[in-house]
Hints:
The protein is of the alpha+beta class. The protein has one domain: Nuclear Transport Factor 2, Chain: A, CATH 3.10.450. The chain has five helices and four strands. It has helices at 2-30, 33-46, 49-54, 58-69, 81-93, and strands at 97-111, 115-128, 131-146, 149-157. It is globular and about 45 Å long. The termini are far apart.
Amino acid sequence: MKKVLCIAIAALFIIGLYCNAMAKEAVDEENDPAQVTELFYTSMETGDVETMLTLLPEAKAEKVSNFLETAKDQDMNKADNITICCFTTGLVKAGQAKCTLKDIKTTVIEDTDTSAKVEITFTADTEIGVQKATEKVDDTVTLIKEGDKWVIKEIKENIK
């Protein structure tokens, strides 16, 4: 009986360690600017606008969300890069577009306690209706700390 009890306690201890490690990994993703950046972009592939909005400052997320709700009436030429990414993701979610990212590489080029810059490069295959495009993307993403998590403040294209 004591042997079974010891095995059960050991199993519970191991399960507890595993759960703790998984929770730490999830928190670490929010605390790593490169992972936040990659998650934002890869959300485009699955149409996960909701995740993208959680990776933006609250005020920006609200602005983008309002833009998406009235997108038909908006001038896309006035939209910034974050809004365009979210708009494309909305098309993927609605089944009106497909987006595949390949060869994703992120590099933290600047990192302080309150801000960071991450360069992300990848190849994007996009299909909207009958139009297909392959594009090499090279962006610099500026992140800031909002509370205890990194959020994306701005995306700039590195045009070469």
